[in-house]
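TL;DR need structure tokens for one chain.
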Amino acid sequence: MQVSSRYTLTIASVVAVTTLALFNNCGQVKFSSTPNANQQSPSAQGTTTPTTSNNGGGTTSTPPPPVVCNPFGGGGSATSTEGLEANDVYYVDQSQIPPVPANDSSWSWNSTYISNAIQNSVENLLNPVNIVTASGAPLILSSAVNLFLPDINYPDMYFTQGFVNAANGQALQDASGNTLTSYFGFRLKSNFVAGNWAPGDYQIAILSDDGSILTMTGAASDGSNFVINDDGFHSMQMACSTQTIHVTANSEFPLTFDYMQGPPITIGMIMLYRPVSVAGTAQDPLCGQGGGSDSYFFLDHNGSTPINPSEPQAPYLQLTGPFNPSTGSGGWAPVEANHFVLPSNNTNPCAGTD
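>> reply
TL;DR here they are.
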């Protein structure tokens, strides 16, 4: 999200320009020629193998999608079987947005237009079959990548480097040829396991900037699906659940984490936990807080100057401090990388480069 003139957008009905029509087109992967000196090469080129086809005149080979290793920096360190993986990055074709009116700013105009088009929902951004402009052009494009994260532990930061191809240091571009850093989304998949936790019940919460939805199949203490919804365009905001999860030594729950970034330039996502044996089941009073302020949980800029790493503010220090029985707050910690195991025996080619 932008670091100034920021506001939380409300869900609105789809504007007239978002005429419903079937959309099956996907954008091709384009990368800039500017290398990222901080990007390390993975040990392999991803879990997707090349595909071949026979067009009658010979066999052609399609190379596997590029590998993108932890584009947000930080986080933990994953082994070759740990982490979360996304296979596509969806993004808004901003060249399809109508011209900015004379009495508006590009930031507020683009934000409002896109929010209305996708109804302020990450789910619509990741499933854009009905989102087209008045001319019938698709508003949402996608690029095939193998994106790997070691965990979900990224305090607010300036996101300017984009999604960098680990093999050649080139960054994913949007439809206008710019490095993709805003109005994008992806769906991370993993299996959630007990890791180093003792068997028992746990509270889970999400901090995200912008929107996210966490789903763990069958993980709730009553056996149902566990869901936390922190959807929409907003600053880093805490979302909680009235459900708890129950973990045993053999637990393994399919997990999806849907995330979208709205306006530039701040990005962040953290998955938190605290044991019910310590904190009980009551929600933390900070649940639902932070969405209207760029610096509520973390300070990542001083004016226009980035602060890297960002500085945790009093509310985050309260969350991660000792549990306070009188307030019901505290006792939280980020979920470590050893709780995320790649599905389908996939291998993390970015292991050791986090």
